[in-house]
Specification:
Elements lengths: L8 H9 L18 E5 L2 E4 L7 E6 L6 H12 L1 H5 L3 E7 L3 H10 L6 E3 L4 H5 L3 E2 L4 E2 L2 E5 L5 E5 L7 H16 L1
């Protein structure tokens, strides 16, 4: 009987899906990976252009799916509570720019939606799921110095704006 060598799951995923390497998870206190990408509602953006501001960087699996729509509309409806904390919102999914633009317009979303169809941004945040087919639903709050201040690994899609505003308020108070 032939014995197969043990392979770490990350190495197996990299081999199967052509990834050169598997990203290290980013967490609280780490520098937020910078990126440059096209965004519906903003043209080409860089994360670093928001230095000096709080950034709510939310990842969602797919535009116009029920959970992603509820999450995005929660942020839309609660945008005042988020911007009152001197924060900007950026959404990211693996959808292309056309899909992001249609999603943004259909739901009157007042913030940019980043098209990450290359998967580079999502990979940098170690946020790919299901073998790299979708982005995990996760939100990163990035402080004005460009460091990750909080990570929502579990998101309440119906009340995301409220939970984000509450954490932003706590973080801003602690930073004073």
């Amino acid at each position: 009987m032939m014995r197969l060598p043990m392979v770490r799951s990350g190495a197996l995923v990299a081999a199967l899906f052509g990834c050169a390497s598997v990203a290290r998870a980013v967490g609280v206190g780490d520098p937020a990976p910078d990126f440059k990408a096209e965004a519906a509602g903003a043209g080409e953006i860089r994360l670093s252009q928001y230095r000096g501001q709080w950034v709510v960087l939310y990842f969602y699996p797919k535009a116009d799916t029920p959970g992603c729509t509820r999450q995005s509309c929660s942020l839309r409806d609660g945008i005042g509570a988020v911007t009152d904390q001197d924060a900007v919102v950026l959404g990211v999914s693996l959808d292309n720019l056309e899909a992001q633009t249609a999603f943004r317009e259909r739901h009157n979303l007042p913030f940019p939606l980043v098209a990450d169809d290359s998967r580079e941004i999502t990979r940098a945040y170690d946020n790919l799921a299901i073998g790299g087919l979708v982005a995990r639903r996760r939100t990163f709050i990035i402080d004005p110095q460009g460091r990750i201040a909080h990570v929502f690994d579990r998101v309440d899609v119906n009340n995301h704006a409220a939970e984000v505003a509450q954490v932003l308020q706590r973080l801003r108070r602690a930073a004073r």
